[in-house]
Each structure stands twice: as structure tokens, then as C-alpha cells.
Amino acid sequence: MNFTINVWRQNGPKERGGIATYKVSNISDDMSFLEMIDVLNEQLIIQDIEPVVFDHDCREGICGMCSMFINGEAHGPGRGVTTCQLHMREFKDGDTITIEPFRAKAFPIIKDLMVDRGSFDRIIQAGGYVSVNTSGNLPDANATPIEKQDADAAFDAATCIGCGACVATCKNASAMLFTSAKVSQLSLLPQGKIEASERVMNMVKQMDLEGFGNCTNTGACEVECPKGISIENIARMNREYLSASITSK
Amino acid sequence: MSKLNSNIPEGSLAEKWTKHKSKIPLVSPANKRQIDVIVVGTGLAGSSAAASLAELGYNVKAFCFQDSPRRAHSIAAQGGINAAKNYQNDGDSTFRLFYDTIKGGDYRSREANVHRLAEVSASIIDQCVAQGVPFAREYGGLLDNRSFGGVQVSRTFYAKGQTGQQLLLGAYSALSRQVAKGRVELLSRHEMVELVVVDGKSRGIIARNLVTGELERHSAHAVILCTGGYGNVFYLSTNAMGSNVTAAWKAHRKGAYIANPCFTQIHPTCIPVSGDSQSKLTLMSESLRNDGRIWVPKNAEDALAIREGKMKPTDLSEENRDYYLERRYPAFGNLVPRDVASRAAKERCDAGFGINKTGEAVYLDFSSAIKRFGTEAAHVKGIKTPSEDEIKRLGEKIVESKYGNLFQMYEKITAQNPYKTPMMIYPAVHYTMGGVWVDYNLMTTVPGLFALGEANFSDHGANRLGASALMQGLADGYFVAPYTVGTYLSQDITTGKISTDSPEFDEAESTARNRMEGFLNSKGNTPVEVFHRDLGKIMWSQCGMARNSEGLKKAIADIRILRDKFYSDVKVLGKIDEMNPELDKAGRVADFLELGELMCMDALAREESCGGHFREEFQSKEGEAVRKDDEFAFVAAWEFTENDPGKSKLHKEELTFENVELNTRSYK
């Protein structure tokens, strides 16, 4: 297969960027999208052009590092996949493919397709944990039974990979899906309930400080989320937030 | 002469760790605040160690090359984590977990370390649950378990097929809490490129800021490597693209011995290689072997017909299939340990029974399980004479509930529906049991330098059992290092801040800079990736699932030629003082090119077959591994000398077994 690739090139955070166009050939339909970029980069190096910089690591859809906006969609066409799980068989021979970085005020571009998602780390640091130190003397793991339904719902929320597709997709660049997934996971579990009020207040505050937008319930985040994180989590976070703000001292 | 003292404490096996902990010197809270610790890597071992040490009061700097600690490749572990909780009342105990691990490792690990691992395993589960890790539960609200290869109890805790993700996010949350408190300084997108040794002690690192390209100096009283394994030396592996050996190798060049580097784990159930531009391989969890049956056609003509696309696997009747694991190992069947299952697949494919275009794939078939589950489900529903379609539908539903995410992952990659046609699988490089040599306290041969998790060699011998990597990473980070690193630091309470303005830091920084400039100035014609791919081919064909003396000698010669070519012909664009992922990759591949030679030397020196190390010269008539305990019951620890991996010097740490009897591993 052969493709025309329009890709965003930007040398640094403060530099002006633009679309560059390259041809890439001899792509097999079994290749992943990132392997196609690998081939493109090897071609560029041979032509003395600096390779396209992009984030990637595990290449099996779990680390959350890959982050391309392909033909106007986060992680490209197809549902429930990250860019590394997207295969070239999803495209037609001769297609023109446009690749941009995830764009949001809180995700500044570092270079080309690579963005800084440190804001996500700082939201977690604001309260996305249970305050328990390492200790060999904690209660036995089975001391507190947890209803299977709650444990499963907490798990579903916890499968968020922190890629930022929700933010890139949202017209307000809101991080509500990401933040609410962690808030939900912990508030559904007895271990996390104790700090629930403080947690939701602090995490939402940090989310706003980072410059993420608000949620207007369009639900696009849920559609593009590679892990199918539900917007029910946003509803749960709103409820937690409301009750916390009424009762907070 | 040799620096190898394993420092195993006195006393009976079950008392060693408890006694050791109660006797070791402590550091007072006020003194801890004066002491700096560097943790490199933020996977399970790194995140848990950094969080725990910070909670104790040390000043911690945590480094990772990814954009966030949460990306570390522990996140990709699927199946589960072992712990001797005996919640199932199926006869599990600390001793049994210890025994299974020693046996599974083919009697090439240290008894005392493995017993400690089994002892602390239960605390790991308590810790993770307290952090809010959502493990799978039963309807009664208690934790669920499943079974893994090489054992006969159910001791594996899991969170669907994403156990590694959930455990890492737990450790990451503990780490994030300490970052918020200012107890940990987080340096993401930073890569360690040199170790700094001052007066024989590990005192800091040189790290490259991967965004600006700047070489930074960071000092500390102790440095802890939690940098994972080196499976990417094979180019294609289940590791992440960025996983590398550089930190460990730089430590090796500064005096840290590397132990048993040839002990690599080839995982039997991975998606086969599809083409030349493939960048990585994807694992299909071992848990699939609970219900999937592995087979190839009984007749070579059928295999050929399938390879040529003239026949489908579903066309073959039962009597024309060879369920070779069930045939060879009736007691454990499809759940034999990984090394055994991998070798058996290779044996069949080499004999011409492989079933994909490349001839390197076998079937993992769920049709029996679908039928069995479907019949059961029909029975429960009171359907007396269910039709075949009904059974299939009900059975598929149950298989989906158990393995749905893995089936989906398989379909995404291969575009084949594993409910309808058997999965194709083939072994792939997955884990490295070898690693930096450490003593009982997890300290390397460089005082003040520690290695935790997959980066060290200590607990899995020649083969790791499934669901034990997560256990070891967290055991080391949460429950071992906080004690043993403290013991070392208790001598350092009056040292004061370590200056980065010293000849040792100057030297380390200029070494790193010169090396990078070398790559940029080589002005060759070949991209880095090409060398990595070529190295991988040599390693996989000569130092993979089966090795022999002739092949290993050839591999050593070939790697030396490739390495010379790399330095004269590598092409890296860009500059040193800027973001330059190709330059980073060149550094990693350069280190793999040295490690590869050492692995082959180690494999050549170990004239026996054990665990993942199979020397063709040492096998029984039935093709089983033949171990030689009289000559090779030792840890092979290699010292780097004369600036040449080929001149590495072998040191032996004898392994003594006082609590288990050395037996031929049998799963028949």
C-alpha cells in the first residue's frame, strides 16, 4: 500500500508549526499505524530529513503514551483502539492521511506530535490516591468484603490509561472524563471513601488550574475513549463534588 | 579476590528475614532528612521503592524516560500476581510458594531470597487492597484467585487481563502522594546515561533531559536501579519500545557484575511475527492456557496444506490433531511452565508442523472449552437436548466473560475471530531472569548501588513462573529495599550533601557527551533501527530458545562485526543539545550490542540445559533439558574488564540448597 501523509511538524513549544507532506510506500496491511510511521521515519533519515517525533512505548494499547489525532479523530478511525492498535488495513491504498498532535491549552506541544501531559500527573498528585503508607501490618486483604458490583465498577473506571484522547476530542478540552474516572474508582471502594470529599475538591481545583475546560455533556469523550470509560463517571463526580462542596468546612 | 558475598543471614530459612530485620541498624527521622536517594525507573519496583523510601523520610529523586511514571512497562502485565494467602484452602503455604518458585526456576536461584519473596507476598496483596487496587472479587465480596503454569494451587490474584496496570497505578498513586508532599522530585523524560562512582561508592548519575538534550548531574547517597529487563536485545519482544539495558549496562561498566545474562524467558503464547517491519510482539496471557488446548496437525501434509491456504484448521478431525503438550506432559498438560511449552512449540515447528505462512506458529484452540462451558450452561438452564449452535452460543459467552479483552486484542491485531477459528501463537521473548548481580540486601558489587525487580537476577533462577514478576517487583520495592537500603545508609548519616562539582562527575559527564558526539559525527549511512534489527536476528537464531556451542561462537563473532559496523556507519541526524529520540536510541542500541555478546558468552560457558537456557548438546533422548548440578549449580556473575565485553571475567557464586532436594524437573 502507498499513502500520502500530511503531518504536523513543529520544532519546539514556542516555534511556529505547519503541515508537511510525505509519501510513504511499501506498507503492508498487517502493519500498525506506528509501524507505518517507523517506515516513514527510516525513509526520512536516509533523505537527511529529521524524523517525525511522536510519543509511543508499549505498542499494545495499555501504556497510554501514543497520542495522535488522525484524520480528525483521536487515535484515528475505529472504536476502542489506541493509535498503536490501529492497523493499516483500516485505510485504503492511496489514501491521504492527516496527522496532528492532541491539541489543548493544558497539553502544550513539545515537538511535532509530542505533547506535554504533565497536567494529568498533577491532577493525580492533587488527590488521586488513598493516604496509606507502606506497611506490613495492614488489615488482611479479605477483612473488608466489597460488593462485586462495586468492585467491578471501580475496576472499569480504573482502566483509564491517561492518554488524553478525551481532552483532545472535547470541544472545551475538558479533562472531566479523566478526572472523574479516578474519583469514581476510589469513591466506589471502602478504602477510598474516607477521603472522598477532600479528594474530589482538590482534584477538580487542580483540573481547573491547569486550564482544562468545562464539561457540556456532549459525550464525545466517551465515544473516542480507547478504553470505553463511561460518562457515568462524570455524573458520579458531579454528585460527589456537589455533596462535598455543601458539606465542606 | 572475588567481591561475591551474598550476605545471607544466619539462621533457619524461615527465620532469616525476620531476624535480619530486627537486627539491622536504623536511621533516625532527623538523619533521614539529610540523605538523598536516586531511584531510576518507575515501574512496580521503582514506584514502590520511591514511594516507600519517601514515606520513611529520605529525599528521593525518581527518574523515568517516559512522559509519566504511569507508562512504565509493568503496566502491560496481564495475568496476575501470586501470593501465598491460601484463601482457596487448596494447600498453599509460604513454603509451597517458595518450593514452586525454586523448582520452576530449575534450581538456579538463591533459597534465602526466594523464601523472603514468598514470605512478604501476602503483605503485597494487603497493601494493594488498602491503596484501592480493584482486584477481581467473587459474589461474596472476597478476593478471587486463578491458576497459572507450573503450580497445582490457585494463588494468583488478578484484575481481569490488566493486573499489571492496576498494580502500577496503585504504586503510581502512592508515588504521586509523595510528589505532592514534596518528598519525591519527579524527573520524567529523563534517561540515566552514566553512573557516578566516588571513592568506590555509587554517588549519583548523569541523566539526559530528553526534552532539552541537556546532560544533568544528580548526586545521592545511594542509587537504586529499577530499570527492568533487557529483552529488547532481541529487537522483537513483548517489551515496550523504550525498554532498554542502558542504566544497568552503564552500572556494569562501572563495576556492577551482571549475573546469568543468558537466562531469558521465551513466552509460549504470543501473536506470531507477521512481517519484516514488525516492531514488537504482543503477548496473549498465560491464563489462556487454563482453557485453551495447543495443537498442530498430526500429518506434515496437512500442515503444508494449511500453510498454503488449501485447508482450514477447523477441517481437521480430532484424530488428525496432535495435542503435543497433553501427549508429552500428561500431568500438567497445557499448563506446563513457560520454558517447556515454548520449546515444545519450536520442536514441532522445526519438524515441519508449523501452521502459518512462516511455518512458525501453532494453534491455541478454545473449541473444546466452548463446548464444555456451553454444555454446562445448558444443563444449568435446564435445556435437556441443546443443539450444537445453542451450546456454542452459550459457551462463547462464558469464554468471553473470562478472556474477552484478550480475544478482542487478538482480533484487532490479526483480523481473525478466535471464537470461530483457533488462535495462532508462537513463543516470543518476554522476560529476563538474568540481570544485575545483587546480594541478599539487593546491593550490587558497587557499594551504594542497588538493583530491584526485573533489573536484578535474584529470584527466578533459570525460569520465572507466571504471575511472579509483579510479586517480585513489589516485594523488592515495598518490603525489602526500605529496610536494606536503610542499613547501608546508616553509615552515611554524617557524610552530608554529595557535591556534583567533582572530578568524578566531570569524567562521567564527558564520557556521556563524547559517546553521543561519536554517534552524531559518525556520518554513516545506516539508521540505528537497522543495526538493532540485525542484532535481534543474530540473538534470536543463536541465543534464543535453543543454543549450541557452534552457533554461539558464530554469534559472538557476528556481533563483534556488527558492533564495529555500527560505530563506523550509523547515521544519526540532529544535535546533542536538543530533543533527539534517534540519538537516545543509538545509545541504547550501542549498549545492546555489548550485552548481546556477553549473553552469548554466558550461554556458551553454561554447558548444561536448565530452565530457559537450552543447550542442544545437553538433552535427554526425549528432548528434555539435562541439568548438571555438580558443575553448574552456581550463579555466573560477569565483571566488565579492559573496556571490552569479550574480555569479561566470570565469577561464580555457588548455590547451596539446604531446604529442597535437587530433582529433575518433571511435569509428566
Task: Please outline the helices and strands.
The complex is a heterodimer of chains A (249) and B (668).
Chain A: E1 3-9, E2 18-24, H1 33-46, E3 68-70, E4 73-74, E5 96-101, E6 109-111, E7 114-115, H2 118-125, H3 148-158, H4 165-169, H5 176-188, H6 190-193, H7 196-209, H8 220-224, H9 232-247
Parallel strand pairs in A: 1-5
Antiparallel strand pairs in A: 1-2, 3-4, 3-5, 6-7
Helix pairs in contact in A: 2-7, 3-5, 5-7, 5-9, 7-9
Chain B: H1 16-23, H2 29-32, E1 36-40, H3 44-56, E2 59-63, E3 81-82, H4 94-104, H5 111-131, E4 156-157, H6 163-180, E5 184-187, E6 190-198, E7 201-209, E8 215-219, E9 222-225, H7 246-253, E10 258-259, E11 264-270, E12 293-297, H8 300-307, E13 321-322, H9 324-328, H10 338-353, E14 362-365, H11 367-380, H12 388-414, E15 423-432, E16 435-436, E17 449-451, H13 469-489, H14 503-521, E18 526-527, H15 528-543, H16 549-569, E19 570-571, H17 581-605, H18 629-632, E20 634-639, E21 649-654
Helix pairs in contact in B: 3-6, 3-13, 4-5, 5-13, 11-12, 15-16, 15-17, 16-17
